[in-house]
């Protein structure tokens, strides 16, 4: 997967210090950007800060080297090997090597970010640049709380790679800088991609049912019934990683009950999960299971298997992020017409209009506080935020980057076009739940696997799932070993 994250992360669920509506307005003007951010296990427990004793000596700052990179120091770059692949990063590494011919770059890609890198954080020998994404994403909230990340403000205030008259921060899409903050003005994370999350489907398949994308839940059930009669399941999802379900469920909750419901969930407020909008949306999704509209065997499928079944036409709808078009490129038929839409709502009583969607920065890059060559890691990011590197990423992986541009001369793929259209329809109604960034274990292992996964497999009723998830959230709120964050 891309960044399921995860973090993924959009605009209304902003970090401290940013007005929600201001950020929504700016992000609505974005374009599209991709994955996310997701996280599984807690990051290292040891404290950070200070830096290691074996830091590379600083280089001389010049117009060509504004960060003062040591041109002969080794750079270690670890990338998450997911839906975007690794070619775009390898291309950017070659530019670094050209700019610093005396430097050696040790580049590697893995899906085991947490298990590979946590021991190195604990030992004080982390890499210089990390794409902290995937199912084993390290918990960003823990990393920030333990002072294990470097502040990226020097990168953001440096001259951009293309135009020395513009700072890097001035070349980024709205909301990207704010997403990297947790509390205060320091920026700990640079989300390189921009993800549109939602309900993905084949327009050709939907047309074959003589149906339009459903705007109400009664319409959704009717479309699923049509699909079932033709031997196609209504839905499938990453059953082994059920934290994909929120990609469409969370914005549906916001649509039904308003963005304040998601804010309360992010803030770990008491009884936030017991809000009537949450209950109604859980019951709606459970009805997909109860009526047999979920592809048989889905709880046992991983993200690749569920995407493959979807691409083969075994299921119509798939909750996912905009990396899915690239990740499934080898199995998606040429005439599939990849499309994404905002989540279906309940009915006319919903608080927000149809089109309300989750979109945000994804693919979170970090520079560890104890990195030996953290300046080199920031310089590698500065290169990646150039117009050429951004265009290269978009053309190769069918997603936009944090760089506000880089699409000239590129023919947008069906999925990219659909994502841009979905954002246009959303207007100000773009949401960005931060729980997947702030509390990774809670979001993935507990809400995802322990709650939603069990409910969609029929092992919990909606009421039982709400109670269980609220218990998880309450435990997280009381846990003094983790840092807590709130919308301001």
From TrEMBL:
The keyword Signal applies. Residues 52-63 have a biased composition (Basic and acidic residues). One of its GO terms (cellular component) is cell envelope. Keywords: Signal, Transport. Residues 1-20, 46-67 are annotated as: Disordered. The keyword Secreted does not apply. InterPro entries: Bact_solute-bd_prot1, Chitin_NgcE, SBP. Residues 1-12 have a biased composition (Polar residues). Its main location: other. Signal peptide: none annotated. It is found in: Cell envelope. It holds the Pfam family SBP_bac_8. Belongs to the bacterial solute-binding protein 1 family. NCBIfam families: chitin_NgcE (TIGR03851). This is Carbohydrate ABC transporter, N-acetylglucosamine/diacetylchitobiose-binding protein. The lineage of its organism: Bacteria, Bacillati, Actinomycetota, Actinomycetes, Kitasatosporales.
């Amino acid at each position: 997967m891309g960044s399921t994250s995860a973090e993924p992360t959009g605009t209304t669920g902003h970090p401290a210090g940013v007005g929600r509506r201001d950020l929504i307005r700016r992000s609505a003007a974005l374009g599209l950007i991709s994955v996310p951010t997701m996280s599984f296990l807690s990051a290292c427990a040891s404290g950070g800060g200070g830096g290691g004793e074996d830091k590379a000596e600083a280089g001389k700052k010049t117009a060509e080297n504004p960060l003062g990179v040591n041109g002969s120091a080794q750079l270690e770059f670890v990338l998450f090997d997911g839906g975007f692949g690794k070619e775009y990063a390898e291309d950017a590494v070659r530019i670094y090597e050209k700019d610093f011919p005396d430097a050696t770059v040790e580049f590697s890609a893995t899906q085991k970010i947490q298990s590979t890198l946590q021991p190195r954080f604990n030992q004080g020998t982390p890499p210089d640049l990390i794409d902290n994404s995937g199912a084993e994403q390290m918990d960003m909230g823990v990393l920030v709380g333990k002072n294990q990340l470097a502040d990226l403000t020097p990168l953001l205030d440096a001259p951009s790679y293309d135009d020395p008259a513009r700072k890097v921060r001035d070349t980024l899409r709205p909301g990207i800088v704010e997403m990297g903050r947790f509390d205060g003005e320091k920026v700990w994370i640079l989300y390189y991609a921009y993800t549109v999350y939602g309900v993905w489907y084949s327009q050709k398949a939907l047309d074959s049912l003589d149906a339009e994308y459903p705007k109400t839940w009664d319409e959704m059930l009717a479309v699923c019934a049509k699909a079932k009669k033709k031997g196609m399941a209504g839905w499938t999802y990453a059953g082994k990683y059920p934290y994909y379900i929120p990609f469409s469920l969370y914005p549906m909750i916001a649509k039904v009950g308003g963005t304040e419901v998601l804010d309360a969930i992010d803030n770990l407020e008491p009884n936030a999960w017991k809000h009537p909008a949450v209950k109604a949306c859980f019951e709606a999704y459970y009805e997909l299971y109860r009526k047999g509209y979920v592809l048989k065997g889905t709880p046992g499928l991983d993200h690749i298997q569920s995407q493959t079944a979807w691409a083969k036409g075994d299921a119509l709808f798939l909750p996912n992020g905009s990396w899915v078009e690239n990740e499934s490129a080898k199995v998606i038929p040429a005439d599939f017409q990849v499309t994404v839409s905002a989540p279906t709502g309940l009915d006319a009583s919903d608080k927000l209009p149809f089109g309300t969607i989750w979109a945000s920065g994804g693919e979170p890059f970090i520079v560890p506080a104890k990195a030996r060559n953290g300046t080199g890691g920031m310089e590698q990011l500065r290169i990646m935020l150039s117009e050429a590197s951004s265009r290269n990423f978009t053309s190769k992986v069918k997603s936009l980057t944090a760089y506000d541009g880089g699409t000239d001369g590129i023919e947008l793929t069906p999925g990219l076009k659909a994502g841009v259209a979905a954002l246009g329809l959303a207007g100000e109604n773009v949401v960005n739940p931060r729980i997947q960034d702030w509390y990774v274990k809670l979001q993935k292992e507990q809400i995802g696997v322990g709650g939603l996964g069990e409910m969609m497999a029929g092992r919990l009723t909606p009421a039982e799932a709400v109670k269980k998830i609220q218990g998880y959230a309450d435990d997280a709120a009381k846990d003094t070993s983790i840092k807590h964050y709130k919308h301001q």
